[in-house]
Amino acid sequence: MRRVFFLFILLANFQLAITRQIDINNDSVPESFFITRSRDEYLNKLVSMPFGIKRDEPVDSIIDKIGNFLLNYRPNNSYNDDYYALESNLQAFYSLREGGYGIGAILIDSSGRIIARNHNRQIQRHRSDLHGEMTLLTDFEESAESAKYMNLYLYKPGLTVFSSAEPCPMCFIRLSTAGVDTKYCTSGTDDGMVTRINCLPPYWSALASKHKWVKANSSPLMQMTAHLLFYSFYLDNRGPE
Ligand SMILES: [Zn+2]
Questions:
Q1: Under CATH, which number does the domain 48-235 receive?
Q2: If both were cysteines, with which of 11, 85, 135, 209 could 185 make a disulfide (CB 3.0 to 4.6 Å apart)?
Q3: Residue 75's pLDDT is what?
Q4: Residues near ion ligand 1 (Cβ under 5 Å)
Q5: pLDDT for the residue numbered 15
Q6: Do 131 and 103 contact (CB within 8 A), yes or no?
Q7: CA 94 / ligand 1 centre spacing (Å)
């Protein structure tokens, strides 16, 4: 009986650690932060962030506060990729503000310069394929500038796509086909394809293995924000009924 009680206290404390205030300077964010399966869980995490959001706030006001936070955020120099994490999160936020899904992506050249920015546009354009990474690559490949960076449909070495979230199976194959390296800000066990590369048919697995897939070195704050932008559909159940 005492053991059960002790376990109960342990679990209750763990839950509190997630739902109250996350220590934003601590690198060890609980893995559970990056798994969100209900609106209730989502809102608990949202109010634990330094956005100034209250639990019963209207959705428009919540979106404004996330935007204000991101527009005033200064990248944390302790993390090499924090500037890119911010830029991809800003793209994710622009999609959220447009009524879309909160995923953003940017394209970086070999000198570290951002040469394209884009975001998910599935809802906005009524298109099943326009995930963040897909929109980024499609619009870039159709631009005049792409000729400088591509060999037919292949990206030249040195280019990196930086996504706010770990690529899904569709984007993972598109990025593999484009031959471009990839970094991403947030990942969770429900989310992406990178850790499931062995589930692919052998040709696709071999093709994907030619390129780098790297979890970015970004601050816990940017990682948690990327997760909350990704799961922002919980705010108003946006998307098909
Ligand atoms: Zn995708």
A1: 3.40.140.10
A2: 85
A3: 98
A4: 131, 168, 170-171
A5: 45
A6: yes
A7: 17
